Amino acid sequence: QIFNQHNAKAPNLEQAFLRMAQMEPNLDHDISWFFLPSYWAKMVVALTSFLCFANSYDGDFVFDDSEAIINNKDLRAETPLGDLWYHDFWGSKLSSNTSHKSYRPLTVLTFRINYLFAGGFYPVGFHVINIILHCAISVLMVDVFSILLGGLQFSNKGRRLNLAPKSSLLAALLFAVHPVHTECVAGIVGRADLLCALFFLLSFLGYCKAFRENKEGHTFSVFWVLVSVGLGAIAMLCKEQGITILGLNAVFDALVINKINLLELIQKLLYKDKALENAGLLRKGLLFRITLLMCGGAGILYIRWRIMGTGPPAFTEVDNPASFADSLFVRAINYNYYYSLNAWLLLCPWWLCFDWSMGCIPLIKSVSDWRIIALAALWFCLIGLICQALCSEDSHKRRILTLGLGFLIIPFLPASNLFFRVGFVVAERVIYLPSIGYCILFTYGFSLLSKQAKKKKILAVAVLGILLINVMRCALRSSQWRSEEQLFRSALSVCPLNAKVHYNVGKNLADKGNQSAAIKYYREAVRLNPKYVHAMNNLGNILKERNELHEAEELLSLAVQIQPDFAAAWMNLGIVQNSLRRFEEAEQSYWTAIKHRKKYPDCYYNLGRLYADLNRHIDALNAWRNATVLKPEHSLAWNNMIILLDNTGNLAQAEAVGREALELIPNDHSLMFSLANVLGKSQKYKESEALFLKAIKANPNAASYHGNLAVLYHRWGNLDLAKKHYEVSLKLDPMAPGTKENYNLLRRKLEQLQRKGG
């Protein structure tokens, strides 16, 4: 609905125009809700959205944050900025076969800026930006909903009018406090969805600006249409869903700007009516604008496809089991069931989970499965809404329902499995944008109820109660996202059949040193998914550390049998075989791991240990040297080289390796200790003493550091200092090997000296 006035003589023209516009069908006529001026409405929405998620500001890096942020080299200053345009969201090359193809360079750029300003990986800054973004998006929703629910009208001064202030406030509040948004706001990786939504909305508002009549009297501005396309491209560079705004802009143009009746248009097309201009298709430049949107969208998609370099990503069956089903019927039924679960999360966001894969939602394999009811309910509601959107005689109703369904369905299409396989079953983050459509439909339903209800205040109180419950649910869910322990444990009651949930709980416990509890959860993960190789690998590792070597070997052997290119499992199998003194098999396992992962410094390190046990010293040194070439900060490999050269009498070579290592890792106290031992044997006492003291300063509670410094003083003739450090060493570790004997020798020597002196 566009209306422009040019009567400058009217004294209160804008107010009169607003009253005239509000006489048309409008949700606010029926809705029982609060009226606030635009500025105050936006303040209320901003404050409410802030209260929902404020307690997530000091949360940790959790779940996918580790891979997308902590382990992502694209965040570090040494990575050229240009690389961001050729890497995926996780820092891998897009051309790699292992890449997820999630191309979001602008989101990664904001992570990099966060990292640089914070001076490291401090999560507070990352969380604060996410909260601010959600607040800004919620505020923008007031303007967006005022257009979607009240229509697009401008005053004679070119100012857009809000013809639905009450309903737009309600819809914006519903959006701001929806608990399903918690993953996007409290999870730092959700930044992609937030940035995408921000530019998605700016693109829509920019498209609306194109219809503000300019001084030349043109009915629309090509400039603002192109700006809208550009903002849509930016949205897509934040997350793939952003491209769908171009389709929504076209739908908005047809329904609101050109007031096309879709049913009439379909009928005219079916009957090949030549008077399509009368249906509004060619009026007001619609065809030209849609051509611009289509060309812009096609160009953006083509450029993205060229950058990707290869085909779509390769996902596994556990990521999305329905997409691997042989039967088209099973795939279709389960896809539709997933849609119904997404719809349920919008309607009742009580059961929320960080991950819905790995058996969380068992496949529907026959029509006798009771869950078919959910599909029937979903399509019953959708068909009913579509019929009303197409067939209603009320143009106002048709417009709102069609826009509501459009914003609900179109942004969800990239996650629907219809065009390509996606790497998840259900993901709460992907319904951040579709929730806009849900809020439109909810608000419209509330207006219909208000129109029929006799006690409108009771209905308003009920809706206010829903908002308050959602605020509390957001606060609770945000607190669960503050740490991995709370997040993973919260999922146990929602998805008890999800092997990944049990795996993550187990991993969190293992990281905290609670191996016994971790074993329980890893075993449950393997029971739920007998092909879960990562759970087998981690369980095998713990059993190896507990010296339960035979069971560890069985698990790791099964893991590499299921996934022959699982390099980490091959390496761990080699460690177990080495412990079982099956050296040839261990060597073979190590080389198989290196075959599948060329740059594997830890495997070279363990291979070097095997060669050292077999007295193959040259091979051991070569393996450790390979480890340090691949990972210059590999302290253990450097240390073992120094110690082996020291033990074999190659003191000059050991000293050279030690100095090289300390240049690369200057603050590593273990390297200082090893080099100090070599220097002491070479009678370079002063330099050795300095390194020992530096190592002790860095790690004052290491008994061996004090003990070996005491030996140095003993050799050097500084007997009082030797006695002091022997005593410190024995105090820290009374059972330290050799220290007590050396201390007794020193005491006898001191007694002899005293007797001679006496």
TrEMBL record:
GO terms for molecular function: dolichyl-phosphate-mannose-protein mannosyltransferase activity. SUPFAM superfamilies: TPR-like. The chain crosses the membrane at residues 131-151, 188-208, 220-237, 243-266, 286-305, 372-391, 403-424, 430-449, 458-476. InterPro entries: O-mannosyl-transferase_TMTC, TMTC_DUF1736, TPR-like_helical_dom_sf, TPR_rpt. SMART domains: TPR. Residues 311-383 form the DUF1736 domain. It is an enzyme of class 2 (transferase). It is found in: Endoplasmic reticulum; Membrane. Keywords: Endoplasmic reticulum, Membrane, Repeat, TPR repeat, Transferase, Transmembrane, Transmembrane helix. Its EC number is 2.4.1.109. TPR repeats lie at residues 499-532, 533-566, 601-634, 703-736. Pathway: Protein modification; protein glycosylation. Its main location: endoplasmic reticulum. One of its GO terms (biological process) is endoplasmic reticulum unfolded protein response. It holds the Pfam family TPR_11. It is a multi-pass membrane protein. GO terms for cellular component: endoplasmic reticulum; membrane. Gene3D superfamilies: Tetratricopeptide repeat domain (1.25.40.10). PROSITE patterns: TPR, TPR_REGION. Belongs to the TMTC family. This is dolichyl-phosphate-mannose--protein mannosyltransferase. It comes from Cisticola juncidis. The lineage of its organism: Eukaryota, Metazoa, Chordata, Craniata, Vertebrata.
